[in-house]
Fold these 3 entries.
Entry 1:
Amino acid sequence: MDDDADQAKLAIMHYEACQASAANGAPPDLVRKIYEYSGTLESFRKYQNNVIFLVADTDQVASLVSGRAAIWRSGASSAIQSA
């Protein structure tokens, strides 16, 4: 992710890569790493306040996965019925 003062960057973290919990106030290790370092050379990020992270809530991941599976199943059955 670029480290510049232009527009803010949104980092959407996959729920399998990291999750956050309100009970644990610390950010996930991956979020901390991206926040502190930039690029493949992992140089220190100068514009840390220019990155916004979207991280899945640990308590909601199971609901997310089951909801996604239900939507996929209903979409697949609709496609089969249409054929």
Entry 2:
Amino acid sequence: MKNYQVDRLIEPAIALVEKYFGKEKPVPKGYESALASFGGTLIQSGPLPACALYLKTSDSNIDKARLIRMLMELMKEQGGFSMVVLAEKSNDLMKQIIQEYNQNEELFKHRLVNATIALKLALRTFELTREEA
């Protein structure tokens, strides 16, 4: 079954990867792994715990909060998102995410899954490196 909602997000996802990592620079491989792990956490635990876990400052060599910011920007691409500007601080962004989630839980989860798939597909089009971001 073809998912046209994901298809429409691939081009904006590629643009986001270029925005966050640069057009010609390789993307640290850890981001692809972290995004794959996020998808599993999203399905297993739900949107809010998954976002909270990734917004937390970690001792990882990648910035997982960057992935959440990218996903939220992709969700804005899908429309119906009341956030105009994403908060800079992680705790403020989490409050925005909770507010959006509470407006329509199922729609939020569906759009987050679509954004995650599109971003994962977009990352696969870039050269990956083992270096840190």
Entry 3:
Amino acid sequence: MASDAEIMDAFDSVADDEVFPREAPFDFFYKTLPDTGYSVFLKDGERCGIYLLETDDMNEALLQGRCGVFIIPLNEESKTVISVVYEIAGWSFTIRLPFEHCEPRHVEFLKELKIRKSFQVRFLNYLYGGLVKAGARDYHVPDEEASRIAEFT
């Protein structure tokens, strides 16, 4: 299986709207993102990536829509969820990005997020029977929300 670094490099090497090959390292996305609404987290050193599969229309709305970022600590489940709530055409839509406290890469990301207060989501969608890169968006985490991220020792 390809490393996180190889997968992120491959993703970055492809132009928007170009269909991913089904061979490694791109096969990771085909195997890991079974349907719209699924996300996956990759990390290599300081570099990390959150990848979300959605429909073409939804990606367009998510890339341009108004939104707010909320941190939801679920201590009883040892999980932190980043919720991005959008207002799209008068409707609310929420993306939930879960991070497990038992996963060291997730804990590293949450620690960095608490300081940096920003993250990026890279969007994918299906086109012509294959996965394509659909763009990326940077998100800002308000101070009050960042303060809700657990202190990890």
